[in-house]
Amino acid sequence: MKKILLGSTAIVAAAAAFAAPASAAEKIKLGLGGYYQSVFVLIDEDVADTRTDSMKQEGEIHFLGETTLDNGVTVGVNVQLEGYTTDDQIDEHFVYFEGGFGRVQLGAADSAAYLMHYSAPTAIAGHGVDSPNFFHASQPGTNVLASNYTFLNTTGDANKLTYFTPRFSGFQLGLSYTPSLAAGTGGSSNSYGNLPDNTPGQQEKIVEIGANYVNSFGGIDVAFAVGYLTGQQEVDAAGFDDQEAFTVGAQLGYAGFTFGGGYQKNNMGLQLEDDMEQWNVGLTYGFGPYTVGAGYGYGSQTSGAGVKDELSTLEIGGTYEMGPGVSLMAGYFRYDFDSDLAANRNTSDAFMVGTSLEF
């Protein structure tokens, strides 16, 4: 059977070679990109038996390639390798097709609602009061809030199909569909066999919609975004619900200043007394090679049992750009976990110095 298939393929290819003119497009060639962030942190927190100093790092190496076909469509690939040992060694990995019709993206990547969102800006690479790579506090007890975030990250890098429209007069729409989270949110091959279904608490058929408006008026940069997520339970189960979430965010920029904030309301796929709500606000100022700024984020969620957990984050810091892609950074962070349960409380003060490389 395989020989017949290969033979047929060869015949079709040969016929196409005689029937079509030679292509001017080039085969995809891979290049490298990525980033690396390394920080030293002093930490003073209430949780017992935790370190007062720590060396942390985060980085990725990106394999990037694309080509433009004779019909004008650009086809590309993006594979991101984590720069440290982890269970999710390969981060995002996807292919895309882009042209006058917009952009179609297939594979393991963030959703349209995530990618099109705006929130509080930060002056410190890898940090911020919204979805940071670095978080310098211990999550206490059973407090459900691990960090502050308004980005829709329910599906993470799970395998999905995404489409972005072209941008018209500053407006753009995006749509993502994730069939299942059964393989996790880190992306997977799924090339052999099938995934389980009817798992209590598991969401499926997740649709995410994003829209934003980006423009400039008289030196003022404006960005506004909204996002929506809806999912379904694989099977009805006590304590769980079909997931639904909404986000909104904006940024304004003028004369080196950037001001912005974001908001998210999310039922987390649970039957909660009060849905998770998160909001943040931030301001940065860039002058020459320097950027300084501050931000504040707050989140809360009340369980079906009536236990309310809260988390607030304060950040103050700045960055000095030594050269292209090379920066030094420093900052102060205060994390305040609060809860109706004493075991879910913690306050952490952290001072950080570090470097950020982009390549």
TrEMBL record:
Broad class of the protein's primary localization: membrane
Porin domain residues: 12-338
Membrane topology: Multi-pass membrane protein
Origin: domain of life: Bacteria
GO cellular component labels: cell outer membrane; pore complex
GO molecular function, one term: porin activity
Signal peptide segment: 1-24
Protein name as catalogued: Outer membrane protein (Porin)
